[in-house]
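Discussion board: Methods & Data

I've been asked by a reviewer to show the raw model output for two of the constructs in my manuscript, not just the figures. I'm not sure how much to include, so I'm pasting the format here to get opinions. Each protein appears as its amino acid sequence followed by a line of discrete structure tokens. Is this the kind of thing reviewers expect to see in a supplement, or should I convert it first? Here is construct A:
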Amino acid sequence: MFISRFPLLAKARLVWLYAALLATPACKSNAPDPVSATPVTETNVLTGSTLIGEYSTATLAGRVQGVPLAGALVKYPIRVYRLTYHTHTPDGQETTASGAVLVPVATTALPLLSYQHGTLAPSSEGQAPSYYASGSDVWSVVSVLASTGYVVSAPDYLGYGASKALPHPYEHAASLASTSADMLRAAREFCQQQSVLVNQKNFLLGYSEGGYATMALHKLLEEKYAATLPVTASAPGAGAYHKTAFARYILQATQPLSFLSSYVWVLRTYDRIYALNRPFSFYYQEPYATQLQADPFSEVPSQQSQLFATPFRQAVLNDSDVALKAALVDNDIYDWKPTAPLALFHGTADDYVPFFNSQDAYDAMQKRGATQVELHPIQGGNHFSSATAYTLGAYAFISKY
């Protein structure tokens, strides 16, 4: 999620996805009954598809040959397609987005799995799923995961692929959810067009920003797509679900915080989407206000007291800025009642996305009467070391349904 060294996050994504291939293969059982919800008006969203390639089981196994036993789990060849589809920007304008769909070459109806990727820096735009770049997580371990028996829908999100001219709405719950939901709709439309057999099961996985996107997607699907895209089970990992508490945590911190350059990205996103239009000097001290205005991804100090300006700090800690508080609250996705099974995974020593995000979500959901929510603390795990345990647990969790 929040991280100032994006290559490290890419490494973490690969670690947790490699681990998934060593987990128990998915079981097939009946999906839970859809929840009641007010549906949206359905229209076709798919605008195009391009075959990237077909890959044999031997080829897929070779991509993970350094991972013990992983290649042995390859079951089906897969075909990979780049899809384009209609979705909407945060301000409601229609646009074209893209993603990858990975289709096992099988004769039985398979479930769909929506995979929400983690943080991608603008310089890593070529690692977005629809490029299917050699060495990317979708090219390697996600492909092997698909080969075990899932049609994988992997949205690029806004700001990557077909929509790379747009700014990525980093950690903006509504647009991450809607873009991922529209990609899932496009994937099902594509399967229908191509006579790919799929059942009605929809699984959701993602870690870090992908975990936050997964939680937002689960909430949206139950609220708006309960009849057409019922959630079978989801397992978000290490997401910053409690944005208001996270902001206070940052501005009260006395210890170094290595993720502050990414939090700058979050603030810039919210300032733009919610039309706060605050000057950089509202958020940051000099010389960082001038520096970040020139280069939003430039280095910043790890001590929050050196980076953030007094007006911003007081606004958050005193709840004195109504518009700013509303933007943070709008991205809180911890306090709601899921119906489908949901498992929260999080390292208890996570120093990028503190564990309280998952604990708060679990407590709030329990208080609302959710009966199929589980909390899986990864004892002593930080944001990176927890990735393997997350995926082993998450894959085993969805395999029950």
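Construct B, same format:
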Amino acid sequence: MPIDPAAEAALLVPARGRDLQTGAAETSAFFGGLPRRQIEVLPSMNHVLKDVGEDRSGNLAAYHDPRRPLAVGLVDAIDAFVRREIGA
């Protein structure tokens, strides 16, 4: 195949600052070698893409609360990434 998919694929990686399972540092280390990646750190976002405080029980409660909105800044980061990739 004449194309290297890893080199061609653009990837937005939302690094979650309050993720109980994978932290922002691990996310950066895992995806850091990809040439066309953007790591967007959202400091108060947890594993299920919700804003949470420092309290572990509140963080876990967010996993089961479908009424909680997505983390502030996540949709804007996705929008900006897609627009940049398509040249809009």
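Answer (T.O., handling editor elsewhere):
This is acceptable in a supplement if you add a one-line summary per construct. For B, something like: The chain has one domain: 11-83.
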